[in-house]
Amino acid sequence: MFIENALRYDARVHVLDPDPHCPCAGIAQRFVQGSFADRDTVLDFIREADIVGIEIEHVSVEALEQARAMGKRVIPDPAVLRTIQDKGAQKLFYREHGIPTAPFTLVEDRAMLLASPPPLPAFLKSRTGGYDGRGVMPLRGPQDLQRAFDAPGVVEHQVDIALELAVLVVRDDAGNTLAYDPVEMVFDARYNLVDHLRAPARVEASTARGARQLAMRVAEAFAAPGLYAVELFLTKGGDLLVNETAPRAHNSGHHTIEACASSQFDQLLRLYLGLPLGDVGLRAHAAMVNLVGEGGRGEPVLKGLDDITHMPGAYVHLYGKRETRDGRKMGHVTLLAEDHRALDQGIAVTRVHGRVVPATNTTPTPTKT
User: Fold this and answer.
1) What is the per-residue pLDDT for 134?
2) Distance CA 151, CA 142 (A)
3) What pLDDT is stored for residue 130 in this prediction?
4) Which residues pair with 196 in a beta bridge?
5) Which pLDDT does position 135 carry in this prediction?
6) How far apart are the first and last CA of the chain?
7) Among 99, 126, 166, 340, who pairs with 135 as Cys (CB 3.0-4.6 Å)?
8) Core vs surface per residue 307-340: b (16+ CB within 10 A) or e
């Protein structure tokens, strides 16, 4: 999606990815198969690059630090990425900067958790490596403590959540900062990932204003240019708490491709090239519905494409992944409408008819992702 936007600027995009069949392999100006977690691989890949960016947090920070030393423009700043890669360091960062977040404690292993049991219920989050809901374990009672993973983690006390929100913030070199309208995220309990989101969020104007202000505080605390996806909890008492931040294009901003004059991908390219920040205003009410694999593994087939594309204001994005499996994000549908009621209708149609399932009579070849 970044490359699609970059083509409008005649920007040359090179991609490093461990999967030779990743969706962008066929459209990148240059594609290299390799691990973005390996320092030497990354350094060799970016040697001829002017600008270095990321699509996922699990990238060698040491390589990005060296890229900075070589005079290359790197976004996000390696220091920002180092903090965000470690959920414990990220939570401490919020505390040190007076940014409200759910109460938490840090543990080194299961033994430490058992020695000092936290107030329950709570959530145990892996400090590193978690993604799309993986690495998060609910601790509902004492029996769950015995089954906790034996690694460094963050124990986050459960709070009464009314809604989960997200705000995209873009910050340039001069410190100019813009925030998109807060989005409301609705989660799929089966896979612990976003089922759909809607913008603007259905909250009071004062809450929306507070969410934008809090997200901008996060970006200002990091004090570096970049795109920041700030995930928030709105408690039943009306408080806003920062859950976590992603320093990159994010699932909560995919709707901006059609819903805003300047999408999150356009903002990233503007940042890379030192161009003025784009317009973040919403053109219409918008929803983004994730298309998630179901029914096992195999070559993906989207059911209900005719029903979805029949709706006015519906935009289908299939990611081109070669294999579907249960819970894997395979694409999304963006819906534009005049109000939330019309969005509800579009979401219902997409949920009923839009299903990504494995094709019959296929023998899938597993790919590393």
Assistant:
1) 73
2) 18
3) 73
4) 186, 289
5) 85
6) 18
7) 126
8) ebeebebbbebebebebbbebbbbbbbbbbbeee
